[in-house]
Design goal:
Layout lengths: L2 E5 L2 E4 L4 E8 L7 E6 L6 E6 L7 E2 L7 E6 L4 E6 L8 E7 L4 E2 L3 E6 L1
Parallel strand pairs: 2-11
Antiparallel strand pairs: 1-3, 3-8, 4-5, 4-9, 5-6, 7-8, 9-10, 9-11
Amino acid sequence: QVHLEESGGGSVQAGGSLRLSCAPSGLTFRNTIMWFRQAPGKELEFVAQIGSSGDRIQYRDSVKGRFVISRDNAKNTVYLQMNSLKPEDTATYYCHSPDGGYWGAGTQVTVSS
């Protein structure tokens, strides 16, 4: 049974940083991995993606210059480094493997002003 596990969420003040990790269980990452987030009362939104070789990186406009997505295939892990966090970044963050249709349970990020 395959599932994705996110970690690294927490509560920080505005301007702070967090690094999220996404690692699969029962699966070796060899494809594009995406991060999404959902704030209370809002729709799920795309945050970033990375291709299998660390290429094809994309970000939503509001996180460009602040978030960095990366992967370590030797550790079978994808990361989302989040810097200069803002209160509007508060959400549950999910990693997603579109090829397999897998989602994690999410990790909560709370940014206070």
